[in-house]
Design a protein that fits this description.
Length: about 850
Amino acid sequence: MRCAILGRDILSRVIYGARVSRTGVIMTVADAQLAFELHDVDRDAADPSERPGFSAKIHGRSSPEGGPLAAQDVQQLQEKLQYEQRLVALVDRIHAAKNIDQIFVELQNEILSLLDAERMTLYAVDAEKKELYSKFLALDTVKEIRVPISEKSISGFVALWRQPVNIADAYDKAELQRISPTLSFDSSFDKKTGFRTTQVLCAPVLHEGRTTVGAIQLLNKKSGDRFTKEDETNVARIAKTLGIAFNNHNQLSAIRRQTKFDYLFAQHKITQDEVTNAIAESRRRQVDVESILVEQFKVPKADVLTSLSQFYRVPAMEFDEKVIPPPDLVNQLKIEYLKRNFWIPVRREEDGAVLILIDNPQDLQKVDSIGQLLKGQKIKFAVGLRQDVTTFIRFAAGELDPRGNISELLGELKSEDAPEQVPEGSDVDENDSTIIRLANQIITDAYRSRASDIHVEPYGPQKDTVIRFRVDGHCQEYQKIPGGYRRALVARYKIMANLDIAERRKPQDGKIKYKMPEREIELRVATLPTAGGNEDVVMRILAASEPIPIDKLGMTDRNLREVKAAAEKPYGLILVVGPTGSGKTTTLHSVLGYINKPERKIWTAEDPVEITQYGLRQVQVQPKIGFTFALAMRAFLRADPDVIMVGEMRDHETAETGIEASLTGHLVFSTLHTNSAVETVIRLLDMGLDPFNFADALLCVLAQRLVRRICAACREPYHPDRSEYDEIAHAYGKEEFEKLGYVYDEKFSLYRGKGCSECNKGGYRGRAGIHELLVASDEIKRLVQNKARVSEILPVVRAEGMTTLVQDGVLKALSGVTDYKQVKAVAIK
């Protein structure tokens, strides 16, 4: 019966020619004849072998070897017919797909099931970028890979020359060169995933046999040493169908009008039906559709902004109370007009342009009005949600006060009624008291003010408790709290950090994980008993972040070149030194980010882990339980490392272990609390390190400080007096300064910040690094081996091109990054 059904199915395709043009299915005359014979068998018989004429029809046929057709041949024919049925069903699904992305995400595995391979990648052509691209689903997120159309990869070669390639061993360079002298196999995927590619069969996906619209690549044949002619035929048939489908979708995409939600569709964040419903709901509620997507359909706001940014081709922006719209521009405009039209100038860019936040940068009527109202101004646009634009407008109009919450909370506190302490065991539910909300608001305001530290400083019950923030390295008063609430506030922070609220006689350390609407931050908490029965709290904000690119650290060309060269070495010791808070960890992570490649195994031991990087295996040491830096390093050496970063060389054991690791083929990074690069060498020798081992291991020492950066919004040049010029020249070294080409005349300028709303009238905003880099040349290594002193080493490193911290600071003052006053505050000659 099954043979008859299969035969009838193929028979119908032969008679009516179904899908022959779409699938490229070609049936031999012998197959067609056998299909007729299977169809003609008596349908009433339960077993085909019992049907009249079956034996004559089947066994009377000749096998390829010339004998009667055996049962095995019938089984093979049945399998072939089943394959054809599955192929036709797949073709239907390919042509029914709404777009190429659906074929990538939903049909790749189904295509692979028809082919004798372990893995398959389906590519489409991005004609504009001359690349192949593919998409796949990973943890509910659509990921994309891209390959240039060139001979640098097998799939790129196939797309370039429009011819299939069948390779027995992708790593056999001789076999690749027989195909083309410049053909190479890109092994980065294997290194990244651990998958081992052997056989490769790759065929172009062509439209009408001429235009490349994609490629299909099979990896590792399941049954056999290499892909066969039959595999090539099967791939070619599927490629022909894909060629038609890809071309159709490309033509539809070309004529289809782009929408501002295309990114959300491509990332499978939302469907067209959901957008349609959201539009209807937005009209009913008279709000923008983007807000409906975020609030009702739970589309992440960041994804909506990305979609708008890609559509309008301008940056996207959310409300940020650290960004203060320029008062001189806002005051020229009517607030109600801005609210009706959903736009506002939010800041001036470094090139002087006014950045306008607007809900629709393609609204020509609004754009023309903006040009008229801000005549003579260079204008740039950013796109935002209407609710963020409105919040910015209200903030600029004074309707929102970034410290309004803290003012309201302080208004609720009455010092005469304040309790002297929070009773032990009191309820610490997040929203049940003014003290709890006050403690939370202080942390929130500190983070949004870009503070690195929070200081809670009580002065007894009769005087106010002072709260100070450290911003850009300088402490500034934030608020005063009634003295009667000092113990309650301190106790709240102890509870948040899991400390003992009853213990006030000795210092305690802990951590707070604090969640804000925009992100979660961690605070390192230290409590210290102070005079008068008081207790101070100091909290360091550890806002986990991505590493700064090494090129953005502000190093001189020489320093950047030498640091990169050292970081690319296979083994040795690299040190970054400076006092607490000088940015050592940031710099270390920037360098690690530069060498963070799939082929390198990188272990880090830190206390605490402040910056996280994908690809690094990061460990937090815990000295209280005996898990020290030295113990972590010894463990790393048993964990197959290429690179080791240890947060600090605090003792001889850690330093010695680091030296041993670097001498046994590992690249080691660490930090020290020393004042200069040269002094670091002496300090380590004084710790008892073997001078010969240390000299052999050392690659370079980078000393660093952070200086306050002049506010870019209000920076202005000025002509200094002669004494200021002489001071800078003397600090740099008069002869060397003159070689730089700076002379005191009417054209000589330095820079300062006037003070503006961006920098809170202080003239400074942000910080920049100044550096000195000691490179361990052969001469330096010789001096280290001889335990030379600072006075002997310094002239040599200066002669070899090292600029000191002060000299680097002077160069940055001359370029307008900072001023010499800030350099003097952090570095001495």
